[in-house]
Amino acid sequence: MVNLRPISAALHEKAKRELNEKPDRIDEDLAALRQWLARTPHIRARIDDQFLVTFLRGCKYSLERAKEKIDMFYSVRTAIPELMRNRDPDKARTREIVRLGVGLPLPLTDGPDAPRIMLIRPGVYDPKQYTIEEVIKVSTMINDILMLEDDNMVIAGQVSGTRAVRQRASRTPHGKKLLGFVWNVNPAKSEWLGKGEQAGHDQEEVLHKGHPVLEKEGPPPLQEVA
C-alpha cells in the first residue's frame, strides 16, 4: 500500500487532470523507480513513497524524466558542495538570512489548488555582508522542506520573481551556475514573475548558463505583470 500524505480533493483532481496521476498506478511507478535506483549505484537516494512521488508529480509521471531529475538532484549535491555544507537551520548565520526575508513562501494560496507563491526580495540583503552563494544555499534549504511538505507547491507549482534576483545572481559566473542548478533540480513547476521582454531575456541568459541540460529544456514559463 502506498504511504502518502492525504491531499485535498481539489489537489487530487488537479493531479489527475494536469499531472497524469492515476492512483491505481502509483505503486507500480514507485516500484519502477526503486528498481532503477537499485541498479544505479552512484545515486544514494531516499526511496520512501513521499519523496519519490514528488519527482513523479513534478515530471507528470514520466518515469524517464523523473529519473533525470533525481539524478540531477543528487548530482548537484556533489558538483556544488557549498550548497550542502553547514545546513544547520539553527545556525545563527542561517537564521539571520531567513529573517531577512529574501525568499519566503507565503502562507496562503489563491485557492485550494493554486500554486504556492514565493515572496522574493533580493534587495533586502546587503551583498557586503552576505554573499549570493549564502542566500541561494538558504533558499535551497527552504525549497527542500517545501518539496517534502507542501502539496500545493508539488502539485500546483510555485510562482516567484522578480527579475532583480536573476540580475543579482548573474553578476558572477558562480552565481549564474548556482541559480541554474537550483531551478533545474526543483521537481516542482516554477513560474517567474517579471516585466516584458527584458525579463525573459535576463531569465534565459541566467538559467541557460547553469547546466547543459538547460539548453535542451529552455527556461521556465514567464508570466508578465504590469
Automatic annotation (TrEMBL):
Domain of life: Eukaryota
Listed PANTHER family: ALPHA-TOCOPHEROL TRANSFER PROTEIN-RELATED, CRAL-TRIO DOMAIN-CONTAINING PROTEIN-RELATED
Protein name: CRAL_TRIO_N domain-containing protein
SMART domains according to UniProt: CRAL_TRIO_N
Coiled-coil region: none
GO-annotated molecular function: phosphatidylinositol bisphosphate binding
InterPro entries for this protein: CRAL-TRIO_dom_sf, CRAL/TRIO_N_dom, CRAL/TRIO_N_dom_sf
Comp. bias regions, Basic and acidic residues: 194-218
A GO term from the CC aspect: membrane
Taxonomic source organism: Anopheles stephensi
Stretches the record annotates as Disordered: 194-226
Domain CRAL/TRIO N-terminal: 48-73
